[in-house]
Design a protein that fits this description.
alpha+beta, 7-stranded mixed β-sheet, 5-stranded antiparallel β-sheet, about 35% helix
Length: about 700
């Protein structure tokens, strides 16, 4: 009986365990079924999309960067394709050992290694970084045969920017460089983030920077089916990239190159403009640099040497170099004197070689007087006394209010970044600029030297050229422009980029004629008569000699006793033809002395080129570049007979389609596998890469 009860108890326990196990299994299968239903029904769309994305990779197609050409079609910036060896650091276990092994197959220089390390510091480890660029076909073949040995290392075809004319026009063109981390973050936060996928370079300076949007183009994409290992199997669909637009500059690059040669090794700036439209015809800053050297970055030592050079080759002197205008300021003082009625053109002032004010003697040039002078004679003979007294009569604030509309002391609005405002002083400016009460006060004696373009006056050559254009055009004002047209690369339609015309100044024609006739007199009987002897056209101008450092009242200026960088600057402003000006020029040669000796000869050759269609002889160019220029020497040449600047370099580098002597064609624009033009000289950029 007892055994029967125990048996029934065991069976009861067994049944309970069996039911529990069955319930557990049923619940497990129920959960699994519910999960499968959830995944297969409710999450089907999401999971299907994820699976498709894992199978398909979207690869960006970087567009060809737009070309930059001059007004005659000469190519100033283009692209060529070449191969690079690139490493993804996150996929490489021993980076140094890998680079050493690569160096056994293709040449890897110490500079390549330094640049790679700098890029690693600036970029993220999972990004592909170039170790060696511009490989030859033989090097590509050698590495490809051993590619299997190098995990995380690839050969890639890249587009490289090229400036076929080297140093010519470098400050106006600017350059491109690899996108740094700060720029990447800025792009990622902008609406253009999607358009910069895959893009590694961006405009850093000049036209390349200011017109980045137009030059960059529109990024395309490819959808590629990949295997489980990530290798491409087939292309599913693609949307091609749209190349950047072509920029047509107003610059005449042959004139630009001529002016740069005329400067030689001297420092300075020149801006030539069309007063009828605001188009910039030449935009020179010397010394120059070769932007080709900096597309892939520059080493630290060359950068330091250039950055610390006393000649400051990195400075764009046309927009960022500010100088006292010297006597080139006198025509502007004269026009505002007529406008305000402070003086008539016929009023005579006695020039006795000095002007005394408040116990201080302001000297005239040469310490000899000109006797009685009216406004015309004061400009032609450059009387200091006449303009000392005029400044005293007008006062600093009236001068400021009348001259500021000409563009002095404010940005001109030119279409590149980095322009400085210069300084046109006023009593309000001085109150804001200084801290101590005695410094804030404007002293009447400070006004006197302003009349001859000294004192606090400091302007750029771009401002001086713009003001000259406004004066000789009778008050018409334009924002200067470097880009003339933008050509759509697909439709080839050109959109004119007109300079914005500003409300004209109310200058009376009879007043303007007084000033322009006096400036014409400068070339006939004044300080520029020797240089302009024999010119086949009528031009007007004004020489200027501006102090780089002050001279004490009881001392005389002696250039021989001063360091070269402390000597006077040589300036000249010009326009031609007098009857209907088509060009104005503002030029400075730093520390070169008297205005007629250095700046005026350069301006004469520019006017000869533009108005008379004459290109100077080689002997004349050599003389001017050494500061020995007067009237042109030798036999001038027709412009079209002179080879394009950089033509020899372009041919030597293998460019196709180079014209023989005309300024109408250029190397094949986007031709692949074309070698870069040879570098000319060391250059510098505001960023070391």
């Amino acid at each position: 009986m007892t055994e029967l009860k125990n048996t029934e108890l065991e069976l009861s326990r067994f049944r309970l365990r069996l039911l529990a196990a069955a319930a557990f299994v049923l619940i497990g299968f129920g959960l699994l079924t519910a999960r499968l239903v959830f995944l297969q029904v409710y999450k089907y769309e999401d999971l299907s999309t994820q699976a498709e994305n894992n199978r398909i990779s979207v690869v960006p197609i970087v567009p060809n960067r737009g070309l930059i050409v001059d007004r005659n079609g000469v190519v100033l910036a283009n692209n060529y394709s070449a191969y690079t060896i690139e490493i993804t650091p996150s996929k490489v276990e021993n980076l140094e050992a890998t680079i050493d092994e690569i160096a056994k197959i293709v040449e890897v220089t110490p500079r390549d290694r330094k640049r790679f390390r700098r890029l690693m510091d600036d970029m993220k480890s999972f990004e592909s970084l170039p170790l060696r660029t511009k490989l030859t076909d033989e090097e590509v073949a050698r590495f490809t045969a051993q590619r299997f040995r190098f995990e995380g290392v690839d050969i890639k075809a890249r587009l490289f920017r090229n400036y076929p004319l080297g140093e010519t026009g470098s400050h106006l063109l600017g350059y491109i460089g690899r996108i740094n981390q700060a720029e990447k973050e800025r792009i990622d936060d902008s609406e253009a983030a999607a358009n910069y996928r895959g893009t590694e370079y961006i405009g850093k300076l000049g036209i390349e920077q200011s017109y980045e949007t137009q030059l960059h183009g529109t990024t395309g994409f490819e959808e590629v089916e990949t295997s489980a290992s990530g290798r491409a199997v087939r292309r599913l669909r693609s949307n091609p990239a749209t190349p950047g637009d072509t920029l047509v500059l107003s610059i005449d690059i042959r004139l630009q190159a001529l002016v740069e040669r005329l400067y030689g090794d001297r420092r300075g700036a020149l801006v030539a403009m069309d007063p009828r439209s605001g188009e910039v015809l030449a935009f020179v800053s010397k010394p120059t640099f070769d932007p080709n050297l900096f597309v892939d970055g520059i080493d630290v030592e060359p950068w330091r040497e250039l950055n610390e050079s006393i000649d400051k080759p990195l400075l764009n002197r046309a927009t960022r170099g500010t100088y006292p205008p010297g006597s080139t300021f006198k025509p502007f003082m004269s026009i505002i004197a007529l406008n305000t009625g402070k003086r008539s053109a016929t009023q005579v002032i006695q020039d006795n070689a000095s002007f005394v004010f408040g116990g201080h003697t302001f000297r005239s040039h040469g310490d000899h007087g000109l006797g009685p002078v009216d406004m015309t004679r004061a400009i032609v003979k450059s009387s200091n006394v006449y303009f000392y007294s005029l400044a005293n009569e007008m006062g600093v604030d009236l001068m400021h209010d009348q001259l500021e509309p000409f563009g002095f002391g404010r940005k001109t609005g030119i279409d590149i970044e980095g322009e400085l405002t210069g300084l046109l002083p006023s009593t309000e400016w001085k109150r804001r600029a200084y801290k101590r009460p005695e410094q804030k006060r404007w002293y009447a004696g400070e006004t006197i030297s302003l009349g001859i373009g000294q004192g606090y006056n400091n302007f750029t050559m771009l401002q001086l050229a713009t003001a000259t254009a406004t004066l000789v055009s009778g008050g018409r004002r334009f924002e200067p422009r470097l880009v003339r047209e933008i050509e759509d690369v697909q439709t080839h339609e050109r959109e004119r980029v007109a300079s914005r015309e500003i409300a004209p100044l109310p200058l009376k024609p009879e007043h303007v004629k007084v000033i322009t006739n006096a400036m014409y007199g400068v070339t006939q009987e004044g300080t520029a008569r020797f240089v302009f002897a024999g010119a086949g056209y009528k031009s007007g101008g004004k020489t200027g000699t501006a102090q780089a450092v002050g001279v004490r009242q009881n001392e005389k200026y002696n250039a021989a006793k001063l360091e070269e960088h402390k000597r006077d600057h040589s300036l000249y402003i010009a326009f031609a033809p007098v009857e209907a000006p088509t060009i104005v020029v503002a030029v400075i040669v730093e520390n070169a002395g008297f205005g007629a000796a250095a700046a005026t000869p350069i301006a004469r050759r520019v006017l000869d080129y533009w108005v008379a269609g004459q290109y100077p002889s080689e002997e004349d160019i050599a003389a001017v570049s050494q500061g020995k220029g007067g009237p042109p020497t030798g036999t001038p040449r027709p412009i079209d007979s002179v080879p394009l600047p950089g033509l020899t370099l372009m041919r030597a580098a293998g460019w196709r389609g180079v014209p023989q002597a005309a300024a109408s064609a250029a190397p094949a624009a986007q031709a692949p596998r074309v070698p870069a033009a040879p570098t000319l000289a060391a250059a510098a950029v505001p960023e070391v890469q």
